[in-house]
Design goal:
mainly alpha
């Protein structure tokens, strides 16, 4: 009987953990717009170092955490730049293919002469 229940309990535990992680990500704004993601990132930057220090005191560890590097990067501004670059590259692909084909044909014609 226990052999049949154990896999069900393991599956239920995994589904519960995954559902909880998804709920926390949605509730904190990670699955929303880029502005909500930026706000969630700032909240995490403010909350994580004190929490780590508290746990280190709890376990009796005396390690000094490295300082957080200052990165001047805005996900809101950079999010669409990659999309724009990809779309512009895809839209230029037929023109570039034609140019490269013409260059290749010209090279072959020059070789044949």
């Amino acid at each position: 009987m226990a052999a049949r229940i154990l896999p069900v309990v393991k599956l239920a535990t995994k589904v519960t953990i995954a559902g909880g992680a998804l709920y926390v990500a949605y509730d904190s704004g990670l699955l929303g717009s880029s502005e909500q993601g930026s706000v969630a990132l700032e909240k995490a930057k403010a909350a994580v170092p004190p929490a780590v220090e508290e746990w280190m005191k709890y376990f009796g560890l005396q390690t000094q955490l490295p300082t957080m590097p200052k990165v001047e990067f805005s996900p809101v501004q950079a999010w669409n730049s990659g999309v724009r670059w990809s779309i512009s590259t895809l839209s230029d692909a037929p023109t570039k293919a034609t140019e490269y084909t013409n260059q290749g044909l010209q090279y072959l014609k020059d070789l044949i002469k």
